[in-house]
């Protein structure tokens, strides 16, 4: 993003944080009606969207309005399919025009970022209404029963869910039932069982501890400082620099690859943790109690940083990265697709992310890596469970393997274009122990002539 747009985004999120405290204190469910909370949350969300994206924010209303009309007019039997096609199609149209009609890789207002979250909400809601109003109880999984919606949302509830100020700019996605429970001040259904040490989840009782907000804001600040201080020290583009490839040993290239991809993650940690803190400040995100009786505020958290950085399997990494998107993909696609759900889920994820070819390269690679990781874990892991020392050795090896596999998989996602991505993969395939440096350089130069495409690095926002 341009510096101006980045400043707008951060300023809006900081104002949203302050507004969230005000919203919880002065428009608490015990003091005002759900109608007022819906109206205020929606109007504030649209104001922030207009401030950040100008009239592009109208796309949020058009996308939501079109799909609400489909829900009303088509009936519950098929509306989930129509909403998925229309919401994803409208998002894809906006992404394609933004990428190929406007400036490729560099644009002043990435209004499709919020649309990605709204698309998740629209489709999740449509499937949950279909489950609750069309399918029989015995046809649903336990999780689908929990999320099923038994009545059609009003227009105000629908726009409030999609465009509230807490999640309009950066999400995260939440289930409709959880959001309505937050607005009305009633306990979430899946939290009713989380009662320990005599504590209950009664009406209007749960407010976040200041320690939760402070801890998450401290994580935001630290992540931002790390990103600003080290992201330019290890630029991802250097992985495909001709001189770097020709003159750097293979092991050093692998180490640099890990460090360069590691330094791209703090910006996601900053954006997602700040979005989580905003929702918590408004009182949204309570998720029951820990075993020691302390409240959990991770209902809509999008990541678990420690589990990401120390992941010992591809699945563990994905389960803790962009958590709400993973839940959405599982509920909308993986659990419902009758044929090859793994491949279908990765393809849907690529389509949802956008029009850059690098996204498709990453998620197609992800299919292969996921299947390979499952096979390795199933066949190899049992041999290392005999003793703690063997298990520790296994964890160390799988941690290194997972991190490198993630790096190789995600490089096209960062480079965006086919040319740079294929140059990265082919340059590593060309390197062989003892190969003549001049020959390496000639091969790379020839590859550059054949596949050279300008590299563009996309920001998260």
UniProtKB/TrEMBL annotation:
Pfam families, sorted: MBOAT
Domain of life where this protein originates: Eukaryota
InterPro entries found in the cross-reference section: LPLAT_7/PORCN-like, MBOAT_fam
A GO molecular function held by the record: acyltransferase activity
GO cellular component: endoplasmic reticulum membrane
Keyword vocabulary terms for this entry: Acyltransferase, Endoplasmic reticulum, Membrane, Transferase, Transmembrane, Transmembrane helix
GO biological process terms on file: lipid modification
Transmembrane stretches, start-end: 6-27, 39-59, 79-101, 358-376, 396-418
Main location group: endoplasmic reticulum
Subcellular location: Endoplasmic reticulum membrane
Membrane topology: Multi-pass membrane protein
Keyword Endoplasmic reticulum recorded: yes
Protein name as catalogued: Membrane bound O-acyltransferase domain containing 2b
Source organism of the structure: Salmo trutta
Gene: MBOAT2
